[in-house]
Amino acid sequence: MSDPEIDELSIRTRNLSLWYGKFQALHEVSVDIKPNIITSLIGPSGCGKTTLLRCFNRINERYGNVTTTGEVRILGENIYTEAVALAELRKSVGMVFQRPNPLPISIEKNILFGVRSHSRSRDLPASKREELIESALSEVSLWNELKDNLKRKATTLTLEQQQKLCIARLLPLKPEIILMDEPCSALDADGIERIEELISELKDRYTIVIVTHNMAQARRASDECIYMYLGEIKEHASTMELFMNPKNEQTAMYIEGRYG
Amino acid sequence: MTDGSNHILKQFEADLQKLKTDVLTMGSHAQENLRNAVNGLINRDVELCNRAIVDDEDVDRLEIQVDREGMMIIAKYSPVARDLRRVVSTMKVSQNLERLSDQASNIAKRARKIAANAEIPETIALQPLFELVAGAVRDSLEAFSRGDVKTALTFDERDEEIDSIYKDISKKITKRLEQDTTHTKDYVDLLFIVRFLERIGDYAVNIAEDAVYSESAVDIRHGGTHPKV
Asked: Which CATH architecture has domain B10-223?
């Protein structure tokens, strides 16, 4: 029986466990991530936050020797079944990495790369291509500064521009969810501020999940926070609640920067 | 301000501890000023009254110091959760202590005037109210210092008791004011003093509320629901 509240969730996991070989990295994780908000995954190194993020578009499977049990529902659909087409899944669940990774080709080709691999060329006439490029670059506030240099090699851009471009190139695929793995860690203070501003603008249209080591960033930039420790979710609450009045003692110790 | 666990940054721990020590020092100065002012009144001791007035400056200085230290901690360490609540609550306690000490100084100023005139017997009638108020201040600071939510949650009843005695004494003094026109000014001063003491009782309630918020994150002000203890 379908439950409207559950159907409205962007991501729902139940008893999700994951092993790298014999090492269990996630333990029975059950979490509900709401649409159109920014959710941060926080916790000490090795707590499983990046692993959990990578479960949301099954990118963990690329590493081999990975065993996953339990359920992950994206927009109501269980993605750990054989019927799921990975290419389609990754269209609706885009990912941005720690270090900007534009392809060493032009800016415009970077934008079109994803959409080209998902469509036939006759479905992408020149006018449509231009429209996609302008709209994607406008959404990440790069259009005005780059519109006259679209043939420039993307790897010559500043790191901040490269990261924005990496976000922009997901957009023509019309994703519902954007996963970000420490998207600001390679950037300077100005770059961080502008990427955070961009993420905040994007949340009206996309569900955003960010892994961050930066507590101040989690506080500033996210609506909800999930604290993980040793592969388990210890606390999931609104950011304000979690940073003002954490219910879990381990969460409190971590965010306050205390030793146990 | 430790929980048996220490901050990774030792200096943060030390700065939090210093903030707490300073506000408690401020508390002991403010209490002494109150005691001196009331004893000055009851014993007609102008010297004690003068001390309460002059020593109020120590409390003022400490208020500025506590504010500066609190702001520095916020700016330097961006505290969250318990640490943030403790810093903010400490700064609020400091503000209440400054007002409390101001009221002690006001009591002392009126007491000096009363001492300059012929003695009136009603001054001694203030003693029970003073004992209640001074006890409330002491216990609120103790609750804040120890993070004792249970004690801090008893202040509604204590405030009612203070208010009731305040009304009782005010009535008696007003009655004397009507009967004895030779001491009109003294009775008016005494009425003010009783009012100041009642206000100090309110500051103790504020401090107790800050103690509850600091420890439990529950805001009980203005009839807010009490946390479970």
From this structure: Up-down Bundle (1.20)
Residue B5 pLDDT > 70:
no
**Residue contact B81–A253, C-beta within 8 A:** no
Q: Which chain A positions have a beta carbon within 8 Å of B8's beta carbon?
A: 257-259
CA angle B155, B91, B100 (to 5 degrees): 55
Q: How do residues A167-186 score in pLDDT, each as one tens digit?
A: 999 999 999 999 999 999 98
Q: What is the pLDDT of residue A145?
A: 95
Name the residue facing A258 among B7, B84, B217 (closest C-beta).
B7
Which pLDDT value is given to residue B1?
46
**In the sheet where A77-78 sits, what is the strand order?**
A23-33, A11-20, A66-74, A77-78
Q: Which residues of chain B does A257 touch, with a Cβ-Cβ cutoff of 8 Å? A: 7-9, 12
With CB atoms and an 8 Å threshold, state whether A252 touches B82. Answer: yes
pLDDT above 90 (res A7): no
A16 vs A27: CA distance, rounded Å: 7
Full set of structural domains in chain A with CATH: 4-101+174-256 (3.40.50.300)
Closest Cβ–Cβ partner in A244, A256, A258 for B217? A244
In this prediction, residue B148 carries a pLDDT of 97
Q: Where are the domains of chain B?
A: 10-223
Residues B159-166 have a mean pLDDT of 96
Let me know if B64 is exposed, middle or buried by CB neighbors in 10 A (0-12, 13-18, 19+). Answer: exposed
B75 touching A, CB under 8 A?
Answer: no
What is the C-alpha to C-alpha distance for residues B213 and B210, in angstroms, rounded to an integer? 5
Q: How far is B153 from chain A (nearest CA, A)?
A: 19
pLDDT tens string B14-73: 999 999 999 999 999 999 999 999 999 999 999 999 999 999 999 999 999 999 999 999
Nearest Cα of chain A lies from the Cα of B87 at a distance, in angstroms, of 12
Q: Does B85 touch chain A (CB under 8 A)?
A: yes
Question: Which of B9, B78, B81 shows the shortest C-beta gap to A244?
Answer: B81
CB B16 within 8 A of CB B70: no
Q: Show which of residues 5-34 on chain B sit within 8 Å of chain A, judged by CB atoms.
A: 5-9, 12
